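ugh ok fine here u go
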Amino acid sequence: MKRTLYVSSAAAAAVLLVAGPVAAAAASTAETATGGVSAPLRAAVDAEGAAAAALKSHPGVIESLDRDGPVWHVNVIGKDGSNTELLVTAATGAVTVENTDQNDDDGNDGNEDAALLAAKVTAQQAMKAAVAAHPGQVWSVEWDNDDDTDTAYWNVEIKSGGSTTNVHVDPTSGKATMSHDSND
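structure:
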């Protein structure tokens, strides 16, 4: 048993040196499947990791975050009122700036963002509340303001087992309620 563990660990280290982290993740997963003790390495940045990378690069409050193929699109409202659109690479977590606006598109200088900035529940907390209510993988989170009732909430899209569930999270209490399911 010890010999197998040493050999598979040495093989994983050799793969890491030669082929890089993606191949090492595959080797680690294979090692676990064959009785090794290592847990599989994550090959991609999830929603929580994308949020952390975006905020590390551009401090502020996340307005929206969504997965689009190999990248996460993240909008951050900065402490100076700027709205920065960031791209976070799903494979590496690298952050690039796509666009920065000092004012809102409609020229109201951030007044629409006042409720978001005052919310007690952040996008990251909304994601956690949504996943606790409906387990799965967060695919997007967005600050939404219902024009009919003037009620703001976080809309979190969760994918699980071939279906998509939208969960609304109250920005004051953090209470999660399911909106609807759909099959992918």
